[in-house]
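Why Phosphatidylglycerophosphatase A? Reviewers of the renewal asked for a concrete example.
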Amino acid sequence: MKQHPFNLTKWQHWLALGFGSGLAPKAPGTFGTLAAIPLLYLVWPFGIWWAAAFVVLGTLLGVYLCDVVSRDIGTADHGSIVWDEVIGFAITMFAVPLSLTNLLVAFLLFRLLDIAKPWPIRWFDRNVHGGFGVMLDDIVAGILACALLHSVWLPLQI
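Here is what the prediction returned.
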């Protein structure tokens, strides 16, 4: 069994790995996205301002985490670093009512955009580096997924 390069006794590594979800042997980004769901259930009931604070502070924290952990392990954007997926999914769900159906549609949409990386996501992924670069493609994927949810999916629910 191959040993991972992370030091789980460092809080930065533990958070960057999405509480360990990024160590899944297959599809770590998918497991990182799933790790966001309990956080949404903790924060979203407090209202949109708490959700906004979570997204902003989580993004700032993520830039730091992704930069520090990438430097620690000597790899620019290791697949097990999934805090970017956590925040990307929180952005996707911004101002979206928490329901099983909404979570499922949002999850599929975010993962599709994050994996396929259509323009402009691919451009950011290839051209912006460091901790900010690791976060930015998932932020853009989250914004696009959120826009699609609000403009196409949620109107169908009324």
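The mean pLDDT is 95. This is the kind of structural detail the renewal will allow us to pursue systematically.
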